[in-house]
Design goal:
Layout: H1 4-19, H2 23-41
């Protein structure tokens, strides 16, 4: 049986990936997450 947190994580990834229509969109999303991480560490 898949644990609920893992199921939620997988659902979130699927939702995020479905929102990106192209490979370029995925790249932009990953880049924005990196920028947000840098800003949070400052």
């Amino acid at each position: 049986m898949i644990r609920p947190p893992l199921c939620l994580l997988m659902s979130g990834w699927l939702l995020a990936l479905s929102a990106c229509n192209t490979v370029q969109g995925v790249g932009r999303d990953i880049e924005s997450v990196g920028r947000a991480g840098k800003e949070a560490m400052r």
